Amino acid sequence: MASPGPPAMTQDQDVEWCDDNDDEIALGDFVMSPAKSESNKRGHPATPGSCHKSEVEDVFAQLGVGKGTATIPSTNKKKKKKKRKTQSVSGSSSNRFSSISSHSVRPTSSQTESEKTLIASNRRKGHKQSSLKMNRGGSSGDTIRRESDEFAALLEDDPYATDDAISADIEDAVGVPFGNGTPFKSTRSFSQQQLSQPNPTAPCGCDPNAPVLNKRCPVDSGFMSFSRYCIVSFEDYVHLQVKELKVVTCQEGQTETKVIYLCGDWYWCPIKCNDIFNAVSPSGSYLTSFDALPITFTTMYNPKSDVDDLLFVLQPEFILSPSYVVEHISCPRKAVLKHRFKGSSSERTEAQLVGNLRHDLFQQCLISNDVSDKSMQKVANELVYGNADEILSCDNLPQPRALSELLSIKPHVQEFARMYTAQKGGGEMMLGLGCQNINFRATSVFAAEEQYCIPALGLEGFVDMTLEAEYSPVSSSSTSLIPSSRPKVLIPLEFKTGKRQEFRNDHLGQLSLYTLMTRAFHGNFKAGGREQEGGTKAGLGGILLYMNGEDYKNKFVSPSFGEHKTLISMRNELVGNISESEDRGGESCGAVLPPINNTEFQCNMCFSKRECTLYKASERIGGGWGEEEDGEEEDWKKELAEKRAGHLTDEHLKYFMDWDRMIDLEVAEEKRGMGLMSSAWLIPSAHRESKEGSTVSGVTWDRPAWEEQKQRIQTYDEGCMLRFERASGGIATLPLKIDDRIVVSPDSTTTSSGRGQFYVAKGEVKEIDDTQIVLKCKREAGEKMAKLVGVTLFRLDKDIWKINGGALRENLGRLFKLADHGAGKDDSKDWMDHEDARRLREIVIDLKKPRFRTMGDDHLFEGPLGGGARPIGGCDLEDLMFEFSCTLNDDQKNSVRKIISMEDYCLVQGLPGTGKTSTVSFVVRLLVARGMRVLVTSYTHTAVDNLMMKLLECGVGAGVGEGDLVRVGTSSRHMYSDEIKRLMCKELAEKKYGTVKGGIEGESMIKVMDDAKVVGCTCLSVGKDVLLAHKKFDVVIVDEAGQITQPAVLGALSIGKTFVLVGDHQQLPPIVKSELAREGGYNVSLLKRLAEANEGRIGQGQESSLTKLTMQYRMHEDIVLLCNEICYGGQLKCGNETVRFQKINYAEGWRGRVGGEGWLAAALDPSRAVTMVDTGLIGGDNSESRGGGERREGGGRGGRAIINDGEVAVIEKLVRGLIACGNVDMSDVGVISHYNAQVAALRKNEVLGSEKGLEISTIDTYQGRDKKIREST
């Protein structure tokens, strides 16, 4: 029988105690710590004197609770040690994380004033941020009185808070006694009966003394059960520390509400109305459905309570890594910063790199079941020399030393295999940590680096290794180590390679969460000693293994329900902090981050200190320092921020704050518009396919083809092809294309129960037709698919591209070089030196006027000083001089002069069709001929590859000059893929310098990069690709700069001495989805920002930094006229008469084949270069073939996907007409639309979708490309 409400609660109190030895004494499952505290202010006087264990139990009995963490004050002053924060006596569940929990109930004397204020506020507001601003330092008497009155008003409605208690709370919050010592007198009119209740019943109608007995599931399936709810409203009963939530299911059309209660640690969840949450029973033993409500989520129990495993997962759309969750234990601020800068850099420390290599060595040797010296040496060589680019990510780590560090764990790997793997005859006792010792034997490696994405829990991560194993508790009477009848279970193993081999709380927390995720994905093993249906299930624990080359340790850990609850509550708190930091609204303000709660020494040693300092220093803009800085003890934080960021002006910090805010706004809008992969599984696959086209539903996996392919895979990390089929067809009509990223999930995934097997594999589309789709995946994806049991149908969801906010923030942060990093760890993310960072800030933020040298044309073609440089293909000075004189027009010559003479930067505005790419190619070759190194970059891989191909055509990087032109990153894989592949650094290193021990030496790749004269990459590759780490270029040339946001381009500019921005800020601006971000200037590219500043200088009679290319060689004069009228004010001109009057030549008699004189013939008339068609006026067979058929579909864009069926019909008629006209190649025809949904609808059309060569895409895809005929919708 389920209780209607929460368990028994006690009044908040702090008690201190000490024993005769002043040591920690365990009481049951909890630790009693000596500490100092005030007397309790809630009606329970402090107990003076020493207190033994029995006395503590008596105190607990008086308080009406069972076991819990408590401290009782001692009058023995001599024995007191360092102060510690006390824990709540209100009964946290027994777990190893209780000593680090932040859920303290009352302020104590051992806590700071800030903590007192925070906790007192928490008790009234129910979350970690007080809405009442308490400015104790230097507050006036009027301010204190006003704050006292406001805080008292918050407590007036609490009939169980005595006047004395309210006075105490006001003193805690405001910092002085209420009324200068005058006791608080309430004006409330509660009945005496109400005030005299010793154990009052909560206003919510629940019995606080009742045991918690949530409803059990009648059939224990062993699989997770969960339900999804939305919070309609909630009441916060502070005196009971209970929140009563009125909730509704997230099923469409449901309006009935029921109640859920949050108690214990769950009480502190930072909930808001309209928040989504999941009610989860990981074991499936408890009901979470709407019929099972009310449910009480609690971490505190009386002896009659049922110890359930129910979890309250707040905002599960935030899919967080366990490493972020446990980071929140030590520093909530750092955890939020890591999330905000997620994916920002690939550079690693030596410890991180060596650790990753040790992971790989351990995994591969156990998978191959071969830990011999010879085998381990071979694998180590492959890892070190086969991943030279990874080694390069760590500066000053030569490969021989990396190999030595890697092989140092060889004896420990062999020892672990001997003791605990069945193949080596193992099966020995393993010590338990906080649990019983076990006899353990691993029979096989089930998976390595298995990726779990469990949206029901709001968690994702990679488990180092999952072992299929047999184990049993150690028994003195057992005759064999492992009973022969023992069924196999899955055991996650967390592998740590750090120098300190300590069983730390954060490591235990990670393993606990990985254990929870393993159970959610594979199901829970049910005791009974028999094999279970549905494949091998997860066991009840995991292994924490330390191996650092000097020694190794391992222990078995079996997390309790209470530990999982504590960790998920920490996840919820982190979600609240992340949400608050990203919730920027319409105000131009800085991100709200958790306060700094570490010491100065810890802050100096922190890897996130640059990011932390920037946010801290930004607090001085528009409102002063943050609240946590009140008090002299916190002055060092302000001083440290000023020391590191004092050289940054208010304007610099405002630039950071504004762009940081706009990134948040744009990311948030993209989440709303495009949807999240974390919520895609909530939509039935067939519905998502029909509405959005971004899912392929009901496909089968061709497993025999994979099994055959598996035999040919030579290396562990080699990829594989997975083929999916659907006999009913229709795949080719979906808006999927080659290289799209796809997530594979069982099509049986539900929103209420079963295995959490969403996201079992991920790959890229390599082949697609009407009945099948082929994905390229990692090898382990096929292995994982093969181990799924009972799955016949799959769904393929397009992995939605999203803005990499972390990379944008990293680029932004690189602009603000800290003046002092302090003692400790270097900030390897800052590749710029102070002078380069200062120079770039002056240009980008301060808009400093650029400088140019004075030189004549005869000086343009001077070679490098000293001469003797080797010839570079395509870069002969005499040839370039001839080309300059004979092939470039006047606009192009002016641009070349400006670029060569610049000392800071130059802007080139290339109007449509004006030969911008040819001009850039010439400038690059001239700069190289003058002895400079050049980085060419753009936002897209396609734009970069187009430039690289143009340079190849001109002879750069070809023949004897092979290696002068290098491509970094990933190519666009379009028609030039083979040519571009030969330019990749790794390919060139292998060709020029050969292989060593089956791989490439890192020195070879360094030589290739050092010898390269021209390097091509995308803007966001800088800072992420290790080959560009600490590199410097004389000139950075950015193509299509008008379409790139400022933070995106800053990364590339940070590694150049000078730069050139090429593009057209009057064409397409950067794509912006958030109107608030647009209003803030997110759509203002750096090209536009600097061009507008240039216009202001020209108005003052100063030299222009911008040159224009105005002579176009692409469009008929009528199209030019249209462009001039709309954008360019007559500046755009035809380059010659041929271009001016060009037209299409149809076959003879074309007009008769398209209906004579109707609208179609008029639209296709070759004498008209531009035709406007009013689709609302043209005829058709039915209403659908007319224009005006615009509709908005729901789904991925929140009901804003725009589709016009009438225009699809019109485009079909136009394409049919072009085919009928004759002499038209469909590869010369392009169909363009503003909207992805309209593009999908066009591709689904039977005629348009089947016409080979016809290209249908969005406007931005066509940018800078030529088609003889373009049709727009």
UniProtKB/TrEMBL annotation:
Residues 888-993, 1001-1075 form the DNA2/NAM7 helicase helicase domain. Residues 253-468 form the DNA replication factor Dna2 N-terminal domain. It catalyses: ATP + H2O = ADP + phosphate + H(+). Its cofactor is [4Fe-4S] cluster. Residues 1183-1195 have a biased composition (Basic and acidic residues). One of its GO terms (cellular component) is nucleus. Residues 13-26 have a biased composition (Acidic residues). The keyword Oxidoreductase does not apply. Its main location: nucleus. Gene3D superfamilies: 3.90.320.10, P-loop containing nucleotide triphosphate hydrolases. Residues 1082-1269 form the DNA2/NAM7 helicase-like C-terminal domain. One of its GO terms (molecular function) is DNA binding. Key enzyme involved in DNA replication and DNA repair. Involved in Okazaki fragments processing by cleaving long flaps that escape FEN1: flaps that are longer than 27 nucleotides are coated by replication protein A complex (RPA), leading to recruit DNA2 which cleaves the flap until it is too short to bind RPA and becomes a substrate for FEN1. Also involved in 5'-end resection of DNA during double-strand break (DSB) repair by mediating the cleavage of 5'-ssDNA. Belongs to the DNA2/NAM7 helicase family. This is DNA replication ATP-dependent helicase/nuclease.
